[in-house]
Amino acid sequence: MNTDTLKIRPMSRLEVDLAITWAKIEGWNPGIYDAESFYQTDPQGFLLGELNGEPIGCISAVAYDQNFGFLGFYIVKPEYRGQGFGIKLWQAAMDYLGNNRNIGLDGVIAQQENYKKSGFHIAYKHLRYQGMGSGVVSSDIVPLKTVPFQELVAYDRQFFPSLRSQFLENWLSLPDSAAWGVLKDGHLAGYGVIRPSELGYRIGPLFANNEEIAEEIFQALLTKSIDSSVFIDIPDINSQAIALVQRHEMQPVFEAARMYTKETPDLPINRIFGVTSLELG
């Protein structure tokens, strides 16, 4: 088949819902309301591949700033795989982000060698754990909406390679979600978000200054998902995060590798108890 007939263009907001649907079919358990937050972060960064007018594949290439971008939603419909369409989507995404940015992604095991050929290296792994929700809200917990937004953005910046004010503004107001924080001496010492997904709820992010604060926030988040499955993606090199999920009898169900094209960002991994998402970093 002639791959030159593939048309690649930016998605509309409604077409990002199609990417979410395809991710659901792939078993990635996307958040039900993720599309709006994702799209608003970079409306030009979601690419659709069309063959004779039919959508057959997609990829996201979100440019957070001039120095950092993130790839996700790399999907080609099964019946169109192995025909060269995927690599054309990949090349369009890489071209959009350019050579100057450090580009990150979370690669499934089957694709990691291919990503290495494109210049990516593995920094560490993300392990997805699944359990059941049942927690308590301690007296230290505060609704995140009571924390000044700029303080939240500044705190979040410690754990992510760039400022992401636009993303957070939408992420913290997702329907049927909950966002909690802990203050120490009047300053934010950790926060977490839980949102509904296709198979229950997903926690992300969960950032905290230490394991005890992470535990408090985790417990508060679990009150949102009582009697439902809950999922969290954690860096495998954070032993305290592993200990936290094991205390709650959660089980590993999925693995991906965090990969970058340039240097691994200098982030406090020992304080990252749950990554925000595998689609946008």
TrEMBL record:
Q: Which PROSITE patterns match?
A: GNAT (PS51186)
What range(s) does the N-acetyltransferase domain occupy?
6-148
Leader sequence segment: none
Domain of life of the source: Bacteria
Record PANTHER family: SLL0310 PROTEIN
Which named protein is this?
GNAT family N-acetyltransferase
